[in-house]
Write a structure and sequence with these properties.
heterodimer; A: 216 residues; 2 domains; 8-stranded mixed beta sheet; two-stranded antiparallel sheet; 34% helix; B: mainly beta; 11 strands; globular
Chain lengths: 216, 164
């Protein structure tokens, strides 16, 4: 989307008056199209961007969700967690939801949030769906076999989720606490650890949405 | 990590029940122990919840937190968050000693009370009744405000961060 906007700036420079030159420079300075530098973002920058993985899992509403196709063109926040998680998972989701509610609609509409369960045995669609919807009904919850989920995590340089304990009522699941942010170029330049605050999201999301990343 | 008590006060004042005279930043003392910063998010699911508070031992002898009960029912136990190979997972700690002049601070991402098999799911604005049992100080009763997860997260922000 942003690509089209910047092309209009590349008009021939022919006979430029000082005024129009200033106007051009001024306009260029206002267009936040350049990718943010790593030090402008509060998230953790990847040394080399991650390619958006191609996978399909089942949504809590029963539909198949083709991750790459469904999130194409959006800033996509991808997180792996589970509903028996006492604070890391609900706090990430609550923080992102609260910030999206307060951002301008043109920014929040350009963001998709996808959470993949790391506890498919207990996170049934009936449990996971309402759990996620209480934060924001637009958030997408995905469920799939744990081997498949861990294979996706591995492609994203995340450690596999692992189960500790056998009691179905009280086992716990160790998992990465990092949210990966894919941008419109279908790559992730940055990720967000647990401890990311609402003001960090509010700072970074508009930059991620408005930036024009180099296309290949 | 410093809690923002202005935020908690604002969050709790707007939702405390009329008969509740408890201040949200309530400090409970029992002998040489001081318990402060107690709060709990409204559980995100029907059966699992969490609870946080801070124990300061002003005395000359160690005390040990041995048990926790809450009005949410089920079982309540102290957990820590362990970071291994890039993952975070919680782990039951059993009884935890608070040494003289030491503080046991619970907060999201660290020590927390895990409430499992919740039978009475508290909602935002409710108060959770909690009994904490120490080996020396005995039982201490707390009335804990129930907040949204978003408000709990905002308690962890530095006051100077609250700009937007």
């Amino acid at each position: 989307m942003a690509n089209k906007r910047s092309n209009t700036m590349m008009k021939p420079f022919g006979r430029l008056s000082i005024t129009s030159m200033i106007a051009v420079i001024g306009a260029a300075a206002c267009i936040p199209d350049a990718p943010p530098r790593p030090d402008e973002l509060r998230g953790t920058s990847y040394p080399a961007p991650l390619e958006k993985p191609d996978f399909s899992l089942i949504r809590t509403n029963g539909d198949t969700f083709d991750f790459r196709a469904e999130t194409d063109g959006f800033v996509t926040l991808l997180f792996f967690g589970y509903t028996h998680c006492p604070d890391v998972c609900p706090i990430h989701m609550a923080n992102i939801a609260a910030v999206l509610r307060n951002l301008p609609p043109d920014v929040s509409r350009a963001v998709k949030v996808v959470m993949v369960s790391t506890d498919p045995d207990r996170d049934t669609p009936d449990r996971f769906g309402p759990w996620l919807a209480q934060f924001d009904p637009s958030f997408v919850g995905l469920i799939g076999p744990i081997e498949e989920v861990n294979a996706i995590q591995s492609r994203l340089q995340l450690p596999p989720a692992s189960k500790y304990g056998d009691d179905p009522g009280s086992y716990t699941v160790g998992h990465s606490a990092r949210v990966i942010a894919f941008t419109a170029d279908n790559r992730a330049h940055v990720s967000y650890p647990f401890g990311t605050r609402q003001n960090d999201w509010a700072h970074d999301l508009p930059l991620l949405v408005k930036a024009e990343w180099e296309t290949r | 990590m410093r809690l923002n008590w202005m935020a908690l006060a604002a969050a709790a004042v707007s939702c405390s029940s009329p008969d509740s005279s408890d201040s949200p930043a309530q400090i409970t003392r029992s002998g040489t122990l001081e318990i402060t910063d107690a709060y709990a998010p409204a559980p995100a699911s029907a059966d699992v919840g969490s609870l946080y508070f801070t124990v300061i031992n002003h005395g000359g002898e160690a005390d040990t937190l041995v048990a926790i009960e809450t009005s949410a029912g089920g079982t309540a136990s102290l957990h820590d968050m362990v970071r291994i190979d890039g993952t975070m997972r919680m782990q039951a700690t059993g009884a935890v000693e608070v040494a003289p002049s030491h503080t046991l601070r619970m907060a999201p991402g660290g020590y927390h009370v895990m409430i499992e098999h919740v039978t009475v799911r508290p909602e935002v604005g409710d108060t959770l009744d909690v009994i904490v049992t120490f080996a020396r100080a005995g039982q201490v009763e707390l009335r804990v405000p129930i907040l949204t997860y978003s408000d709990v997260a905002r308690l962890l922000e530095d006051p100077g961060d609250r700009r937007h």
